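Hi L.,

You mentioned the student needs an example of a multi-chain input paired with its predicted structure. This one should do, with 560 residues in total across all chains.
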Amino acid sequence: MALETVSRARCFGGTQLTYRYASIETGTLMRFAAFIPPQAEHRTVPVVWFLSGLTCTEENFTVKAGAQRVAAELGLMLIVPDTSPRGEGVPDDPDGAYDFGLGAGFYLDATIAPWARNYRMRSYIETELPALVAESLPADLSRQGIMGHSMGGHGAITIALRNPGRFAAVSAFAPICSPIRCPWGQKALLGYLGPDRAAWRTYDSCALIDDGARLPSLLVDQGTADNFLQEQLRPELLEEACRNAGIPLTLRRQEGYDHSYFFIATFIADHLRHHAAALS
Amino acid sequence: MALETVSRARCFGGTQLTYRYASIETGTLMRFAAFIPPQAEHRTVPVVWFLSGLTCTEENFTVKAGAQRVAAELGLMLIVPDTSPRGEGVPDDPDGAYDFGLGAGFYLDATIAPWARNYRMRSYIETELPALVAESLPADLSRQGIMGHSMGGHGAITIALRNPGRFAAVSAFAPICSPIRCPWGQKALLGYLGPDRAAWRTYDSCALIDDGARLPSLLVDQGTADNFLQEQLRPELLEEACRNAGIPLTLRRQEGYDHSYFFIATFIADHLRHHAAALS
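Structure written out for the whole complex:
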């Protein structure tokens, strides 16, 4: 798999890159962003993954979160994937809805036609992309953390739950806490996986925890002025699942913050320091 | 003049707003962004203006520069105007070029038809918008700084030179240093002002300095990997003008940085601290 450099810019003494390559999993050209901190000139560095939310590409977090400043200080590589396959022939929501199809891969492997061919974001993020990063970049994959926002918070937590021991730290901003119990999630799971709800549980943080998966700890920030809080995100369900399972959850309700990148930018430094502490 | 709030988000303990109002100068609905730091809950705060470059609106700096973190810490209000009038009936470059018309107001008052009616960004920024900010926001306009990027660096420096004593600090990222001597500037000045080059000098930092205008000091960052450095930006001309006039110029050539917001984000904290020191 040959990486093509789409863009490259100096940033906080490190390098911000966008790469593109032909993914076998999705059958498309996939882009991802990588921030290489200055410390990587001399050694491999730990990796923190950031999974983005609905409608985003690899660009939103990269240009809006202000994460590079702290990643450069802490010596963390940031890997930011796109949120779905894209390109000619990739099916999209028939009504052009923002919450299904392009920009809405939900970090799962679809099993229903016509989605199953390209919508393989789970295997892409869990298997293919880590191998590519290990092979191509100065990354120490024995030290990884994962975080995400909204749909990407769901992605980060479920991927960590399904891969015990892989991530030293897991955190999320305003995650979708239980896709099987919210409209965004139900639409996606039904569309990509079909009506058998047993198959949905492997893509639901709370169900995975109820079924025995564990994390050493979990940090979540949630704005109290987030429009999606009550209907879609439902952090109280994650609180309950973690409490029942004895998973130490730090859930910070941030007064007055909404669902935007202004919220993420405000607290990204806390999250990166949390990850760095676990990775050092 | 009634301000309409277009958007509002909590950010670093302060508030990031986008406003819209009917400008008399431009004859259009003008948007601008304002970051109100937490200190403004209890008192008026100093104001730093940021003028953006070609193709930008008020949004680019607001979402990409990461300025709110430091502005919140230092108690600075940030005011970020749009770069041109916009809307139905506002003329644009006949070829749709990015460097003239919409997004390319060059911070001047046009005198040539059809531009003269709406393209009044000089009067808008120098006179109308400050009055609106003073009347509507918790701003202390006895303490102001101004900065900008590229075309906005040109705007910041020329506005400061034409308004001696108004700004305690002036700085720029990769400014267009002498519009009368670069293709971007020549196209804009000819198009908006006509062929009489004497009229151009009031919109040229170097010419204003040569003609006697002064600044107490000037901070400029310029990336050495900036694609526009040699043909359009020409910092050596500003260096020469400042040297001849005895204006203390700190010109930092930043190795490997380009013209992007990754460059601005890397050094915005330095600039804001420079402004805060002068404003305190």
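You could point out the following to them. The mean pLDDT of chain B is 97. The two ends of chain B are 31 Å apart (CA to CA).

Best wishes,
N.
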